[in-house]
Structures are given as structure tokens and as C-alpha cells.
Design brief:
Elements lengths: L2 H6 L7 E3 L2 E4 L4 E4 L2 E4 L2 H11 L5 E3 H7 L8 H15 L9 E4 L3 E4 L3 E2 L30 H25 L2
Helix pairs in contact: 2-4
């Protein structure tokens, strides 16, 4: 891909609409109404690469050059990203509405794409605000550590009581 063609594509950091979803590459976030989904950075880069040329086939070599520049990865990594993207968009490989697989060639984004989408600003598309989120840091799911710790303490206490009873019984 030459430099001239690459500069014709919209910025991969600007928000864009794909089908019913608003994609925010800088936040690795997909939003549809109140439904907000986070994706891994490489998954978002794969989506942005396809959104830069909607309806066109993006070959595996083009993905490798644009998303994994200077890194050697297998085709399985791309396939996993496409799978995660489909999952996030609620898409199916057998009956796609967003990402079409073109066997032995690559993938195409078949949903309508609209660039120049204003997100939370004074433009046409307003996305519901996600309060208390620092967009510079990824939001990670909260772990259920306290319940696991309490459960572990309960098991340890039961074992200790059992050992005490066995000791007193002379076993």
C-alpha cells in the first residue's frame, strides 16, 4: 500500500459509526444506545483498518502491515481479533451483518460506515456519557476477590476445626 492511498483514509483515532455502533478508537469502546462494550486495542485497530475502506477486502497482509507493524504474528491472531470483534458487535460469521470473511483473501466490513461522527461534543452524534471513567486508562472488570477470600477463610476454618476435633479424639 503506498503512502498516497494511506493518507486518503480517515484517521484511525477519530470516532466513527459502523452500522448501529459508534466506535471510539482512542477509548477502545463500542457504543450502541446504553450498551457500551470495550474491546482490546488490536481488535479496535482491526475494525478501524476495515472502516477506513468499507466494503473493500482488507487482505491478511494489509492487516499485518497496518495493525501488527514490525511484529511477526500468525494468521490465528487475526482470526481471534475478528472473532472478538464479531462477538462485541453481535455479528455471526455464517450470516454476517458487519464483518464478512472472504476465504483465502481477507475480510470486509459490510455494514455502513460514517466518519466525522461527533462524540459528546457539539456535533450530530451524541453518545451517553460514561461518568467516572478516565479514557486514558482501560477499564478493567472488577474482580470478586473479597468473596473468594472469605470462601477460602471459611474452608481453612473448617479444616482447622476438623483437625482440632481429630486431635482431641486421639486420631
Amino acid at each position: 500500500m503506498d503512502t498516497q492511498t494511506r493518507t486518503d483514509h480517515p484517521s484511525v483515532t477519530d470516532p466513527f459509526r459502523v452500522g448501529e455502533w459508534i466506535a471510539e478508537p482512542m477509548a477502545n469502546r463500542l457504543t450502541r444506545g446504553d450498551d457500551v462494550r470495550r474491546v482490546e486495542p488490536k481488535v479496535m485497530e482491526v475494525l478501524a483498518a476495515m472502516a477506513a475502506r468499507p466494503g473493500e477486502t482488507v487482505t491478511k497482509d494489509e492487516f499485518m502491515a497496518e495493525v501488527w507493524t514490525g511484529t511477526i504474528v500468525t494468521d490465528d491472531v487475526l482470526a481471534r481479533c475478528i472473532s472478538e470483534l464479531r462477538k462485541a458487535l453481535g455479528d455471526k460469521a455464517r450470516n454476517p451483518k458487519y464483518v464478512e470473511t472472504l476465504r483465502k483473501r481477507g475480510y470486509a466490513l459490510i455494514a455502513p460506515v460514517e466518519h466525522d461522527v461527533a462524540v459528546g461534543g457539539d456535533g450530530a452524534e451524541m453518545v451517553p456519557a460514561v461518568t467516572g471513567v478516565d479514557l486514558r486508562r482501560p477499564v478493567l472488570p472488577q474482580r470478586t476477590r473479597p468473596s473468594a477470600v472469605l470462601w477460602g477463610l471459611g474452608v481453612a476454618a473448617a479444616v482447622a476445626v476438623g483437625a482440632l476435633i481429630a486431635y482431641r479424639a486421639g486420631v
